[in-house]
Amino acid sequence: MIHAHVTAWTIALILFVIALFLQKGGKQKGAKIVQMILRVFYLIIIATGIGLLSMVTNISVWYILKAVVGLWIIGLFEMILSRVINKRRTSVFWFQFVVAWVLVLYLGFVKLPMSIFHP
Ligand code: HEM
């Protein structure tokens, strides 16, 4: 489950970057298709996240925070893409993007116990 989760958000991040570059390169149609695939990965991230949560007997506040920041990142993927498509300012959202990623990586890899690095 944890491998599926990590694989899902890694692929989502790659698809997000590809969609951004396609959009910036004027390839709207390609960007739209990649964005649709990206949305499927949101569902996989959330499903595997809930799957991981269901394995926890005592859900602490750190788990809640982890889930909220994960959802925040998905929101930011959508927000940034739509603002790039509509040629609106994205700086505030990029700032949030960096903060949210630092938080999620800290919570996921450092603070919370499950890990892809040990069985
Ligand atoms: C793009 C969004 C997300 C990212 C980047 C992300 C990232 C991560 C990372 C880095 C880990 C730790 C993996 C490891 O230690 O090997 C993790 C674990 C986990 N994630 Fe996510 N996640 C996201 C979304 C979600 C969502 C939406 C939920 C809940 C609905 C969720 C729930 C969990 C849970 C329960 C764990 C296990 C924590 C543990 O005990 O170590 N994640 N995630």
What features would you describe in this structure?
- The protein is an all-alpha fold.
- The protein has one domain.
- Helices cover 81% and strands 0% of the residues.
- It has 4 helices and no strands.
- The protein is elongated.
- The model has no long low-confidence stretch (mean pLDDT 96).
- Protoporphyrin IX containing FE binds next to helix 1, helix 2, helix 3 and helix 4.
Keywords:
mainly alpha, 4 helices
Topology of this protein?
Blueprint: H1 2-24, H2 28-54, H3 61-85, H4 91-111
Helix pairs in contact: 1-2, 1-3, 2-3, 3-4
Q: Which strand-content bin applies to the residues? A: under 5%
Structural class: mainly alpha
Radius of gyration: 15 Å
Q: What's the assembly state of these chains? A: single chain
